[in-house]
Amino acid sequence: MKIELNENKVFFNNGSQKKEIHPFWLRERVDGEEFLDKGTQQRLFDPTSLNSDISINNASINNNFLEINFNDGVNSKLNIEKLALDFFNEDTVIKSIGKSKWNSSLNNIKNFSYKENFFESKEMYDLLISFYKFGFVVISEVPTHDNFIVKFANSIGSVRRTNFGEYFDVKSKPDPNDLAYTSLHLAPHTDNPYRNPVPCIQLLHCIENEVSGGFSTLVDGYTVTEDLKNENPDFYKILTEVKVKFKFIDKEVVLEDWSELIKLNDDKTFKQVRFSPRLDYVPMLDKEKLDLYYKARKKLSEMYNSNKYRVEFKLAPKDLLMMDNHRLLHGRTAYETKEGKRFLQGCYIDYDSTEGKLRHLKRKFNL
Ligand SMILES: [Fe+2]
Hints:
Helix content: 10-25%
Radius of gyration: 25 Å
Oligomer: single chain
Bound molecules: fe (ii) ion
């Protein structure tokens, strides 16, 4: 990528193409101290109030700086490297971390350990990269006192509070409003598919685990989606097209949201899965379409529940599991309450937390 000049016009040349940069695009990026606040990097002027007939009277390039005199009398010296960061039309930091497909053969699951100043360390950066690659990480040695999970969440970003509270205790209890609060086997599912927006990331912190069962289970919805696309394209297609209603009710609230079971981005790449077959309601479509939909959902459920895709591991006290609720499904094997205590605490954060932290650490460590 190179900046070139010709008759008071500025061009960028990416090797194969040369395009003119709009003078207004450059004008709204002037960064002298009367135009840009140093600390916040926020504009001190409103570009929508500028004359739209901005043109360039004179331009030159000196040592990685583009010097421009605009026709409204403003002169500016723009850092070319900094300008180049704004050429892209989408995020390049998070998207550049490729997703790794994984299945039951995945090992080395517990690979991070909590220590002092963890949230500002290079290890935290590595953890976040690993999280975006695999959709989850497990951190050992996380303190368990005083609902530390909330502090943990707020040290990455901000807790996403729901009607289950700022955080929730996962242990079997009488008269539960969700199957999570029983000791039953929990099949792979995503959390809160009825919420708008669906919480992005779940944190689960093990406080006590004395029972022999109660293993945590994870399935990569991304891997299953990619395999379904290759093996059963008709099933994949209908599950990416039909929107279903997810619903949760209790005494205080009625939550509903509509989505495809497999949601794609505009460019047809993987975006999100939702799966919770006790809470989904497909609309009354043509019989033939529903016939295909039900076969496709059954196949998807078989894949989510098969041994091929599931990893199982036991969380020990102080282990904290952080998982992508838009990508992974999670569950639990049954346990016997008579054997002892099993006590986990959970909470949610959203992608702004992990993305904001990752970009900050990338800046801090010059990575
Ligand atoms: Fe859950």
